[in-house]
Amino acid sequence: MKKTVNILVILALFSFLLAGCGSKSNESTANEPATKTEETSNATTGALEPENELIVAGNGATVEQLMKDEIFKLFNEKYPDVKLTYVSGVSTEIVAKVKAQKASPQIDVTIVEGGEQEAGRKEGLWEPLTEDDIPNMSKVAKELAVKENSGIAVNFTPMGISYNAALVSEKGLPVPASWNDLTKPEIKGNITLTEISSNFGRSATIMLAYANGGSENNMDPGFEKLKTIASYMPTFAKSSAQLQQNLQNKTAAYTAWTMARSIVQKDAGLELEFVIPEEGANLVSNVATIVKDAKHPNAAKLFVDFLLTDEVQKLYGTKLYYNPATDVQLPAEIAEVLNFDRSKVVQFDLEVVGKSTSEWIDRFNREIAPEVGK
Known about the structure:
Elements: H1 7-21, H2 36-46, E1 53-58, H3 61-78, E2 83-88, H4 91-100, E3 109-113, H5 114-122, E4 152-164, H6 165-171, E5 191-192, H7 199-210, H8 220-230, H9 240-248, E6 254-258, H10 259-267, E7 272-275, E8 283-290, H11 297-307, H12 310-319, E9 323-324, H13 332-337, H14 350-368
Parallel strand pairs: 1-2, 1-3, 5-6
Antiparallel strand pairs: 3-8, 4-6, 4-7, 4-8, 4-9
Helix pairs in contact: 4-5, 5-14, 7-8
């Protein structure tokens, strides 16, 4: 089995996260004076006059809910004259939409997964970001840096397998420990996965490749295993919301998605457990970008900078269970929940992923989709 793990990067990221999540006091900092970075951010962004509208695109389900119910409202407390609109969809669709609108952008800011962000960078879709425009960029871990500063990571979470512990026990099904466990015959009729156009399905396929001697550079083993899984399901889910529904109505006991999604559903009463398989898993970073030639550039800069404030970073951690991208203080119980074995992280070559995704989608439609339900 081929496994590519950048130990230095992981150790550095681990140290950063320990510092941010576990070593600080949990007392409220609401009344403490602003940090030097926050003062600089306020002074710099305060000089920008936002336009009266901003269109943001990102993932749906719980991510959309948090954005509309809390983050937008907090932003409007600072900038009440900015009309905010949210366009939801999977990251691949969002990047495709931005590309189609390149001559006349209809979206100002996107928040998409790292692989899709890289694909968009190759297409020249994003404005380069600087600390002059986004002062809070200086607070983001260097290990989360985005190529050519074409975006900025706002949070991240590990991929893995989630399973309904009660349902697995009731049906006598295996507790997953390997990506290959998803191909066991007894899993048939008990699994739901997204299409490879979604990061969840794509990451699972790449890890199936790793678990069988391949990688993002050799996806044949992953596609071979995915054929088996396809035959176990009536259909592939189109979105995370569909995965969520399939787990909630107990038509499926297993899925591949992120730790953050799993914990949110567990909080909602679903008996989900999350495991990073023995072969490892990738980190999914959510990256904010400003669309090139966006119609509302000032509002976009202010909004991206706002996503990196302690207030919003804490919301990502406490409400959606995403690991913050900055060195922000979290409650001890949340920091404990967000802890995971960093030694199992597999570093994908996002340039390869971004370049290859459209080819993988075509291959999925040719080779995998016809195997569904067989």
